[in-house]
Sequence to fold (354 residues):
Amino acid sequence: MKRVGNLYSKICEKSNIQKAINKASLRKKNRENVKKIIENQIFYIEKLNKILNNKEYKPNPYREVKIHDGVRKKERIIYKPQFYPDQVIHWALMLQLEPILLRGMYYYCCGSVKNRGILHGAKYIKKILVRDRKNTKYCLKLDVKKFYPSINKEILKHKFLKIIKCRDTLDLIDLIIDSSKEGLPIGNYTSQWFANFYLQDLDHYIKEDLHVKYYIRYMDDMVIFHRNKKELRKIKEKIEIFLKQEDLKLKENWQLFKTDSRPLDFLGYRFYRGYTTLRKSNCLRIRRRIKKIYKKKRLSVKDAAAVLSYNGWIKHSNSYKFAKKYINPYININKCKEVIKNERRKQYKTREKI
Fold:
C-alpha cells in the first residue's frame, strides 16, 4: 500500500478539531468538564490548534478504573483519558487516520468498525452455515491471550511507518502509543483502531497465504471454518507461529469441533444451521436489566437506549418467544423510541444555539 503524507496539517485544521470535539462529546454533554469546552468551543479550538501546531501536546495521566464485565464478572482495568485535550486529540487524529486504516482492513474484521459490527459478522456466519455445509463442516475458534496488554509497541510503530510517511503524524501516534505502561490502554478511542490494525497482517496471512475460505475476526476472537479437521489443526499451528513473530500468544482454551454437533458461541449469539439464538449470558443480562428498568418510575434516555439495543439483538435472532415473555409485558418499545427522539431534538437545538 502506498504511504500517505501531509496528514498532520489536516489533523490540526480548526474544522477537524471542532468535529473531534463534537464526536468526543457524544453522550457526555451533561458532564461539567465537557459543558465547559462546548460552551467555549472557539477558544478551545484555537488553543488546541496552537498546541498541535507547536508540537506541545503531552498526554495526561490516565484515570484507572476497575470494572467487572459481563455475567462472569471478569475483572478489567479501564484507562480513562481526560476529555480535553486527550480525547479530543484522539478523535482529531482518527478522523484523518480511519480512512487510511480501512483501506487495508479485512472485510470481516467486525470489531469497533462502523458498519462492520456484530451484525455484519452474524449475517455472514448465518449465510455460510446454510449455503455451504461442506466447507463449514468443522469450526476452529481461537482467542489471543491478554491481547491489549501484550501488544508490542515497537512492532505497532513499525507497522504505522509502513503506511504513513508524515513524520509529525507518526510522532503524535508514538506519543499516544507510549502514553501507557504496557500494550494499548483499554479506554482510548485510538486503542480499538490500533488493535485492529495490529492484527491486519494476520488477516491477510490467513486469507492470502493459508487460503482460508471462511474466516471472521472480532478484535482478538477468531473463527475459521473448513471441510477438513486435520487442515484446521495445521492452520492453527501456522497461526501460532505467525503470532509468535508479532509477540502474541493464543489462549490455551482454543476449540475445534464439528459444526453440526454443537452451536457456535460467538458475537453474543449461538449459531446453528438455519437458526440463531442469543447467548445464555446475554439472555440473563437482558432479563436482569429489564426487571430493574420496570421497577423505576421514569424511563431514562440511558435505559431506553439499552432496551432498543436489546431489541436489535433479539430481532436478528430466533428469539421471538424470549421477547414475548421477558420484554413485551414490561417495556413498551415505542415509548423507548419516543424518549430517544426527544433527546435528539434537545441535542439538535443545543447545537443550533452553539
Observations:
- The radius of gyration is 22 Å.
- Strands lie at 63-69, 74-80, 138-143, 214-218, 221-226, 255-258, 264-266, 269-271, 276-278.
- Residues 157 and 173 are 8 Å apart (CA to CA).
